[in-house]
TrEMBL record:
Keyword presence, Repressor: no
One protein family per Pfam: MHC_II_beta
Keyword annotations: Disulfide bond, Glycoprotein
One GO cellular component term: MHC class II protein complex
Domain of life of the source: Eukaryota
Cleaved signal peptide residues: none
Protein's organism: Garrulus glandarius
GO biological process: antigen processing and presentation; immune response
InterPro entries assigned to the protein according to its UniProt record, in alphabetical order: MHC/Immunoglobulin (IPR050160), MHC_I/II-like_Ag-recog (IPR011162), MHC_II_a/b_N (IPR014745), MHC_II_b_N (IPR000353)
Name of this chain's protein: MHC class II antigen beta
Length: 83
């Protein structure tokens, strides 16, 4: 069975003092691509993931949307993510 999964996560550290957005991509349980708001760009973990990272990192509109995800995704969903 082949399975692909994408996961977006918000990590609230010390309440809302520090917020970190992560977007991770998996194929057959192997993470091949990740965006971390602390790093600010995509990182590939496999040859396939490196190609995706290179393509995503070279798209300025896409990267601006990812870099601002802490504001539009994490903060808007804070009450959903916290108990």
């Amino acid at each position: 069975v082949l399975q692909e999964m994408a996961k977006a996560e918000c990590h609230f550290i010390n309440g809302t003092e520090k917020v970190r957005y992560m977007q991770r991509y998996f194929y057959n349980r192997l993470q091949f691509l990740m965006f971390d708001s602390d790093v600010g760009h995509y990182v590939g973990f496999t040859p396939y993931g490196e190609k995706w990272a290179q393509a995503a990192n070279s798209n300025p509109q896409w990267m601006e949307q990812r870099r601002t995800a802490v504001d539009w995704y994490c903060w808007n969903n804070y009450k959903v993510f916290t108990p």
